[in-house]
Amino acid sequence: MFLTFREEVEDALLAALSALDLPTDDLGIETPPEGVDAVLASSAAFRLAGEVGAPPPKIAADIADEIDADGYDHIAAAVGQGPYVNFLPSDAYYDETVETAQDEEYGRLEPTGENVVVEHTSANPTGPVHVGRARNPITGDAIARILDFAGNDVDRHYYVNDAGRQIAVFTWAYETFDEEDLPEPERERADYDLVRYYRKGNAYLEEADPEDADEAETKIAAILQGLEENDEETYERVGEVVDTVLSGMRVTLDRLPAEFDEFVKETRFMFDGSTDDVVSRLKEDEHAVYEEDAWQLDLSEFGFEKNLVFLRSDGTSLYTTRDLAHHEWKLDNYDRAVTIIGEDHKLQADQLAQALEILGNDTDKLTSFHYSWVNLPEGGMSTREGTGIDMDDLLDEAEKRAREEVESRMDDRIRDDDLSEADVDRIARQVGIGAVRYDIISKQPTKTITFEWERALDFEAQSAPYVQYVHARCCGIMDEAGEVLRTSDTASGDEPRAGGEIPAETDPSVLDSEFERDLIEVIARFPNVIEEAAEDLEPHAVATYTREFAETFNAFYRECPVLTAEDDEVRDARLALVAAAKHTIANALGVIGIEAPESM
Fold it and tell me: Which residue in 118, 314, 348, 482 has the fewest CB atoms around it within 10 Å?
């Protein structure tokens, strides 16, 4: 209803400003501060004061007087308050929100007709996923989910670096060293198995005699050259390593979960000739220079101090060159391309966008989403040296701690359902991984995160468990309602209803208390939260909304008894409101990739 309400507010303001012969280019519609009894407000009077030559409160009053709320279904009144025009919702706004939000798909927006590709994670396939980069798959997956829920046709891509030096070193090391030369793997899984070769190879190159190191470098260079020459045997050798490591990494990503529609390999754009095409076009451009034994783009004209190297003297391309071909492919096939990258790659991303413009591409279709790092109090991380903290270790610890917390609360549970060991395991997984995910998503992406267990797993504060508990509580109320309603039906001679089923006919107009109205207003805002989060690529805005929702629902729960309401009519209406709340919070959690437990 919020989006419909906003449309009516826009129409009302346009009509009023036109009637007063005032400009309509900026309506100044905004959400009023907490404590103001309105759903939306207009600050247009500030903008118009200089033009009209009257104080903003006088202009706001004139605009409010010009609006006839009787002409709108969801506006009860337009009221001048100081320099603002406040818009109050009608009873229909509340009634229709409760009814609409009982749909399981509540909040999903109409199809936009746009197809969007979201590239995220894209970590080099050199070993297990580690915590330092956790923000990429978690945030990227959330952004893809939000864009999908906002009506876009979304493809999720992982761009696989299978042509760079690191992979050539990995392939050489895998073919060079024997199992007995390596330590035991940390886990019995492909990525943990093969990363030992990668670490051994890097250590060898750093410590070997110069002659031995040079011999190894010759073999590594031959692998790179073989890829450049589209040598099928070289590609198969590299592919064996890359695909094996990726198979293990995907297990971790599935736990988060981080979903992908396609793993797009870098070599694809070498073998299809598009990288060579990019090189040829760049060489012909006026910004191309040959310096320091390499072809480069001089981007100083565009404010870049550093040149962009796109071809080495030996004729081999670079990651950036192949990524240019990759991005041209994305821009040719999608209406919008979103790339999730770390803040340390911002310069490269800006240079890449400038090079794409030089190549004649529409970079308005391209968005780079930058994020900062995730740290643990224990210290830094590095896959290459094997000193990192693997994501699997973090998730295991999260599930372990969540299980301990769930078990410690078993005696205080209000619900009378018996939880099996499998139930506790499931809840521990939902809560533990949800806690990690929520703690990362809820922060603004440009801020570095230091992950803290006590905060992330706090059932009473701004955390996933705090929000998840609201959904579990809604499910508990609906389950208990089944027995109450069946007893009521039997006493009245009606056909007993199924468990958890709300009455077919309810009267939301009886939900007129402050706490009920506050909850309905928060529910009504959900589609707008999705719309804005998708437009601005701000998953943390959805996380903030879930926290506000939980606080509002808990106030309603404390003050408004549902199953023991003063009469059946109020009870049934509150049950409908709980059902609406259940779908809203389940979908809000779902779009940021967090499961909504039915019991906790």
Answer: 314
